[in-house]
Description:
Helix content is 31%, strand content 39%. It is α/β, with parallel strands linked by helices. A hairpin with a 5-residue loop joins strand 6 and strand 7 (165-173).
Amino acid sequence: MASLAGGLTLRTLLGIGRMAAGAHFLSDAVWSALIAYSAAHGLYYYILRIPAREDARPTLYPLIAHSKRLKAVTVVAAVVIGLGIIGGGILANPHDLDLTGGVTLADLPAQPETVEVVADSLDVELHLVDDPRGAFASECFLHGFGLPTNNIKAVWEFDALPVPVLRYRVTLEGWFTDIDGTARIRIPVRGLHGVTVRLKHGDIRVFYETHSATSRKTPMLDLQTRDGSVFQPHQ
């Protein structure tokens, strides 16, 4: 009993530490605990059969062994639990991506009038800056868990019509059990009429870093998130 209590305490503290460090979600700790418990239970009772050998018993669970119905129910339950653990392990496949990138005005066919940021689940930091070179940049890091076939994409797109728009889009393909990330987007404000952000989940923060006389007139901001908050300080 003391060994069990010590092991559970140590494992719980380790899981809390990993979550505090941002390396794991709660679901990771829960699933790893279930897998470890199932493996130990199977080895102890059914493969090594330690209690049965120590007590010189022909079977550990005589009620189940002598009842076809209970035996069938036990087998089905074990299969379901095993498949659940395997399925949870598959859904917990880690996805860690660095989606850093950017474009400059020299890469574009025209000066954009609007910059749009579109994402499913992302915390966005907008840094409105002075930059005569017109360098649009994004530092984006995403961390999540889901199916191995899932995919995450981040692209800069330019649409010339109906008005020139530069769009930064982050898309999630597949089902993710957990996902979080932050995008720090640097936007030169010179020549821009507006900046739009559309998020399904995530917070939006705005940082004004404009100082020159040509950039004091910052673009209009249209910031919307379905599940999150918007922090926009006064200039």
